[in-house]
Specification:
Blueprint lengths: L1 H66 L1
Length: about 70
Amino acid sequence: MQILEKCMEDMKGVYRLNEEKLEFNLKVLKEREKVNNNTCASLKSKERRNKDILRTVKEKFERQSKEY
């Protein structure tokens, strides 16, 4: 009986440890998700800005090419 109780206590300890690991991993993943979302938003903004610049340059080129 004592062996079974010791086994049970060991298993409870392993369970608690695994639970803590999972909670930590969840926190890490949530933090990474925030960083990734911020990076995506930043890249989308940069993409919009670059598209605007490209459009402006193309329009300027078109105007100049019509003049000649």
